[in-house]
Amino acid sequence: MTQPYARTIPEELVLVCAEPAGGVVRMRGGFHRVLAGAVLAEMLVGGAIAVEGRHITQYQPFAGQDPVAAGVLARLGEAGKRRRPPSLDLAVRRIGRDAVGPVLASLTARGLLSTERRRFLGLVPYRRHRVVPPAAGQEIAARLRAAALSPATAAERDRQLAGLLAAGGLARQVFPGPAGADVRRALRPLGRELPIARAVQRVTSSDAAAANSG
């Protein structure tokens, strides 16, 4: 019997950022940039890419079972054959919103999300995604809390996801209020230390600056 693969970093990002009460998935602002970083982090921990500083320096066949990461790797690998391998910042931009749909579809297919068809103001159709069950993100948040407070003993997947929360400005959403203050402080060094998290922070900062200048 084939065992189901573990949740990927992009999947866990979506789950942990859902509203804790009702489980509604919220992807505001630059969330797609953080999700792009999560796809890159999945490839990194799976051994599909190597990273030095701001650049992807090596590509390998993807051994994981995440079709989103495998598809992104194929596109980045082809680009790398034609020119200098892309910087992490460029990779985050290239992935962009392309990962959102496949990640949501994967979670829905595995029964971790439900989809509701709704209309904004009764006119514009849209889909609302809800985590099933709503408490699914709490276990992930507990692991990330432990990773932030004891990073030396944390699993690399948890370190990468924790760093992305800090870099993407999502730490307060997952660890709100005074009770989460110690975790938010502990997350900041991971956001500064990990190359992919730093790339996400640079891209989101650049997006914000461009929006403000417009």
TrEMBL record:
UniProtKB keywords: Golgi apparatus, Lipid-binding, Membrane
GO cellular component: cytoplasm; endomembrane system
Subcellular location: Golgi apparatus membrane
Lineage top rank: taxon: Bacteria
Pfam families, alphabetized: GPP34
Membrane-protein topology: Peripheral membrane protein
Keyword Membrane carried by entry: yes
GO molecular function per UniProt: phosphatidylinositol-4-phosphate binding
Identification of the protein by name: GPP34 family phosphoprotein
Organism listed in the record: Kitasatospora indigofera
Organism classification: Bacteria, Bacillati, Actinomycetota, Actinomycetes, Kitasatosporales
